[in-house]
């Protein structure tokens, strides 16, 4: 038994904490919320896992991919992202050279052999050289064990900006047709997304066997955020900093973001990123951003 684990691999585990967190803290991501909750809950409740859970999160910057990984980690491990069972690799930092992948495979093996319920997060997949990710394929596959190590209870999460523009186009079309963004379904995006990253040389997943061997369980789209979501992020961040949430300040901060496309100005170009630094710049008396 691993005492540091919170809820993972309990029987009849509903991960209610995760559900509440997703509902209250993640804004504008109805598809991601639903798919993630179901994927993770099903995985942890399965009596015997046949393969590790592999999730690929896609979306433009600031839409909540990293944030969601933190939510997952904090609902699974007591120490959240600081848990010794959670490993985050930032591509540009850890993989400047192809040879590094070998060290890194050793890390995965070493860590999973001491705790098979480990979680590995690969950030900035789109910066990974083409073909590199294939070398971790054996870890993600349907093997009973390899060299005495079983990866079937491990969670792998890939984060990528690749596919973000495609998602944005779909969201924009819905918007232009006057449809509610909540009507967008996973099926409107999932196949497009997997095709796009497979065919894009700069996605980190170009022609990867992880895709054509169906080793990625879910491609999860993160929609571009609108003004109202940025506004909610600002209020949440104020509460987070023990400030009195203030609608006017949230408005000022949300207005200061850049919205695209140029004409329609629907989606925040950086999502909810930089909210924290914008909040710092707000004069508490005038409730205006300092020049
Ligand atoms: C586990 O992973 C970390 C990186 O997160 C690495 O520094 C460490 O050496 C790994 N442990 C083993 C036993 O391989």
UniProtKB/TrEMBL annotation:
Main location: endoplasmic reticulum
Keywords: ATP-binding, Endoplasmic reticulum, Glycoprotein, Nucleotide-binding, Signal
A GO cellular component annotation in the UniProt record: endoplasmic reticulum lumen
Location of the Torsin-1A C-terminal domain: 225-279
Pfam families assigned: TOR1A_C, Torsin
GO BP term (any one): protein localization to nucleus
Annotated ATP binding sites: 59-66
Subcellular location: Endoplasmic reticulum lumen
Xref: SUPFAM superfamilies: P-loop containing nucleoside triphosphate hydrolases
One term of GO molecular function: ATP binding
Gene3D superfamilies xref list: P-loop containing nucleotide triphosphate hydrolases
Similarity comment text for this entry: Belongs to the ClpA/ClpB family. Torsin subfamily.
Name recorded for this polypeptide: Torsin-1A C-terminal domain-containing protein
Organism (species): Paramormyrops kingsleyae
Lineage of source species: Eukaryota, Metazoa, Chordata, Craniata, Vertebrata
């Amino acid at each position: 038994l691993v005492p540091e684990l919170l809820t993972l691999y309990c029987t009849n585990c509903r991960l209610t904490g995760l559900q509440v967190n997703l509902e209250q803290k993640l804004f504008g991501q109805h598809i991601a919320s639903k798919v993630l909750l179901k994927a993770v809950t099903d995985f942890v409740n399965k009596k015997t896992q046949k393969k590790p859970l592999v999730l690929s999160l896609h979306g433009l910057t600031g839409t909540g991919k990293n944030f969601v990984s933190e939510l997952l980690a904090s609902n699974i491990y007591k120490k959240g992202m600081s848990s010794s069972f959670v490993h985050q690799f930032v591509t540009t930092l850890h993989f400047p050279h192809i040879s590094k992948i070998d060290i890194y495979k050793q890390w995965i093996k070493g860590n999973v052999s001491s705790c098979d319920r480990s979680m590995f997060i690969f950030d900035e997949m789109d910066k990974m050289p083409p073909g590199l990710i294939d070398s971790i394929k054996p870890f993600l596959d349907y093997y009973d064990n390899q060299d005495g190590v079983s990866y079937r209870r491990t969670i792998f999460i890939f984060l990528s900006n690749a596919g973000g523009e495609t998602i944005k186009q779909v969201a924009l079309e819905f918007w232009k047709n006057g449809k509610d963004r909540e009507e967008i379904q996973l099926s409107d995006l999932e196949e497009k997304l997997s095709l796009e990253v497979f065919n894009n040389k700069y996605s980190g997943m170009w022609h990867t066997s992880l895709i054509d061997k169906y080793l990625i369980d879910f491609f999860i789209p993160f929609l571009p955020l609108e003004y109202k979501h940025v506004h909610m992020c600002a209020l949440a961040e104020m509460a987070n900093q023990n400030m009195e949430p203030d609608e006017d300040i949230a408005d000022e901060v949300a207005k200061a973001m850049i919205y695209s496309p140029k004409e329609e100005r629907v989606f925040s170009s950086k999502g909810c990123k930089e909210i924290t630094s914008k909040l710092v710049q707000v004069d508490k008396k005038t409730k205006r951003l300092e020049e």
